[in-house]
Write a structure and sequence with these properties.
The protein is an all-alpha fold and 57 residues long. It is 81% helix and 0% strand. The protein is built from three helices and no strands. The chain is elongated.
């Protein structure tokens, strides 16, 4: 049986809030890194792809 709409909306909003918090935390960490370390991350294939995906160059 499906959950009531109100519960599904609350669950969705909690998940979105958690995603937003994680994104903000990642940006805070990246802002704290010296530019040289960010450049090194961008050189790495996997890390660079992830950072470029979110507009960090």
């Amino acid at each position: 049986m499906k959950k009531p709409l109100k519960e599904r909306v609350y669950a969705y909003n909690r998940a979105r809030a958690a995603d937003t918090e994680k994104a903000n935390d990642l940006m805070t960490l990246l802002d704290a890194l010296p530019p040289g370390q960010v450049k090194q991350l961008l050189k790495d294939d996997v890390c660079g792809a992830i950072l470029r995906k979110y507009g960090i160059e």
